[in-house]
Amino acid sequence: MDQAAVLAAYDRQIRREARSESPGARIERGGGVVRQTGSEQDWNGVLWSDVDATTADAVIAEQVRHFTAVGREFEWKLHSYDRPDDLAQRLLAAGFVAEPTETVMVAEADRLPDGPQLPDGVRLVDVTDEAGARLMSQAHLAAFGAADAALSEQLGKRVLAQLAETPDDIVAVVAMAGDRPVCGARAEFRPGADFAGLWGGGTAPEWRGKGIYRATVAHRARIAVERGYRYLQVDASEDSRPILDRLGFTTLCTTTPYVHTP
């Protein structure tokens, strides 16, 4: 893999040429940023910026004014190669709070190994309707606990909206252990892009280390290949990064969400 070329393609296709994640959200370009503004269920934030030491503070302040005016918490998705070098410190000074850093990892979809056999009694179920979206919420809650209850509910609503409004752009599955959802994962497809995004995959603690996450990666990779996508892209947590590394994913950069709450 030509890492520099893939990073350039990622920056252009996923960040600068981003498209809205739902019909209720809009991509706005101008004033030094590419941002998405949507409903409370949508992701709201800055995807890409073109600022320097002389313009950064004014651009940051304008984004705060914009999202505060519409009553939205929003995220500035800062990548390790973004400029200026002190952009993170400027965001903190403007009242943003840093969340855990993630690693942007990419693999060629058709080169991933087949996934492991699922544990006995576990199966993957396609999410296609409201009942499936509810299972996604429950799987997220099982993985991350009651402290993430609001995000679990928001995830279910977002997946249901995507299934209703842009069904060709999302594939979602839930790993079921009997009648209990223990892992939820989805792939999002961007028409015209080389990258399919893999999201979710958090697994209930007692089911970790049994190959469920790897099986969901392989399942989504097969679908991406069938649809003609060249790369898989993941914003990996510290838990999933070693697994993806062993599967053959390459690190492009890191990304840190800086969140501002009005």
From TrEMBL:
- A Pfam family (short name) is Acetyltransf_1
Name the source's superkingdom.
Bacteria
Q: Which InterPro entries match?
A: Acyl_CoA_acyltransferase, GNAT_dom
Q: Which residues form the N-acetyltransferase domain?
A: 131-262
Protein's name according to its UniProt entry? GCN5 family acetyltransferase
